[in-house]
């Protein structure tokens, strides 16, 4: 187990370890050490949660440190937008979908029921507060401010979310 970035650098550089366990964050400090490099093609890096921190600087450092290693990522949540997970690790070898898991009875299906809360707005109270709060503003500034608030109202309107 790589307990520190320095220890990880030693383990990578010496190449004597058969298995090294580390979190990706240790590569940030490990790469500062000269011996943190191993270009052996006989290294396999297994990455858990390949969709999370694997697209940042620490991933770049890890790949610079182990340039010829084979990287295999495991993820329960591949990032589909622009295929970020596939761009970083290559094509998906195997997938086990939520639908398959439900059919196999390994998970319980999650059912979502949309509930739209009733929103009551006391417009008179809001207008009175607005007038008090903006009394020192010009008419143009008040209009701009109202326009800005109107845009934000979109966020409280009901939206359909697909999971």
TrEMBL record:
| Pfam families cross-referenced by the UniProt entry | SWI2_SNF2
| The keyword Transferase belongs to this UniProt entry's keyword annotation | no
Q: Does the keyword Ribonucleoprotein apply?
A: no
Q: What is this protein called?
A: DEAD/DEAH box helicase family protein
Q: Which residues are in the SWI2/SNF2 ATPase domain? A: 2-142
GO molecular function terms here?
Answer: helicase activity
Keywords of the record: ATP-binding, Helicase, Hydrolase, Nucleotide-binding, Restriction system
Q: Which domain of life is it from?
A: Bacteria
């Amino acid at each position: 187990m790589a307990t520190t970035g320095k220890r990880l650098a030693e383990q990578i550089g010496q190449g004597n370890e058969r298995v090294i366990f580390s979190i990706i964050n240790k590569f940030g400090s490990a790469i500062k050490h000269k011996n943190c490099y191993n270009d052996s093609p006989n290294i396999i890096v297994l990455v858990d949660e390949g969709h999370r921190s694997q697209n940042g600087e620490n991933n770049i450092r890890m790949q610079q440190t182990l340039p010829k290693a084979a990287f295999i990522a495991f993820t329960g949540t591949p990032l589909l937008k622009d295929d970020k997970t596939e761009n970083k690790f290559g094509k998906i070898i195997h997938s086990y979908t939520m639908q398959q898991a439900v059919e196999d009875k390994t998970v319980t299906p999650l059912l979502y029921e949309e509930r739209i809360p009733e929103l009551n707005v006391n417009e008179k109270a809001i207008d009175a507060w607005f007038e008090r709060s903006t009394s020192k503003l010009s008419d143009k500034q008040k209009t701009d401010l109202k326009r800005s608030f109107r845009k934000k109202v979109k966020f409280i309107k009901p939206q359909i979310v697909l999971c």
